[in-house]
Design goal:
Similar to LORELEI-LIKE-GPI ANCHORED PROTEIN 2; 2 strands; LORELEI-like; about 120 residues; two-stranded antiparallel sheet; about 45% helix; mainly alpha; single chain; about 5% strand
Length: about 120
């Protein structure tokens, strides 16, 4: 059995307004939704990309909970290549002091897990 370590980032207390105010349905626009996701998630990309933790599924479960988004919305809308979304844009990294380019990878397995967890939470 492959157990994940608990995420050290407190995604429960994050402000998701940057996503929920820009990514609205019923016709979700990839441009606005993906830009908002990047602005929110890129500061945490090192933790989200750590596949030994539950950071990515936890973050996506809260995004879906606060935004009431359909399962796997961001996985289907947001793709910039096989490595996922780039966090190297100046706009995304505004406020970062180390200037290190980061990658926010959305692996298919990770997105399936996030979608499954979101669906599971919606049943209860």
């Amino acid at each position: 059995m492959n157990l994940l370590f608990s995420c050290t980032e407190d995604f429960e207390s994050k402000n998701y307004t940057i996503i929920t105010s820009q990514c609205k349905g019923p016709k979700y626009q990839a441009t606005s939704c993906c830009a908002a996701l990047k602005k929110f998630a890129c500061p945490f990309s090192d933790k989200i990309n750590d596949l030994k933790t539950d950071c990515a599924p936890t973050m996506f479960s809260y995004i879906n909970m606060f935004g009431n988004y359909p399962p796997a919305l961001f996985a289907s809308l947001c793709s910039e290549g096989k490595e996922g979304l780039s966090c190297t844009d100046d706009e995304v990294n505004a406020g970062k002091t180390n200037g290190v380019p980061l990658r926010f990878a959305q692996s298919p397995m990770l997105m399936l897990t996030a979608g499954f967890l979101t669906s599971l939470f919606n049943w209860f």
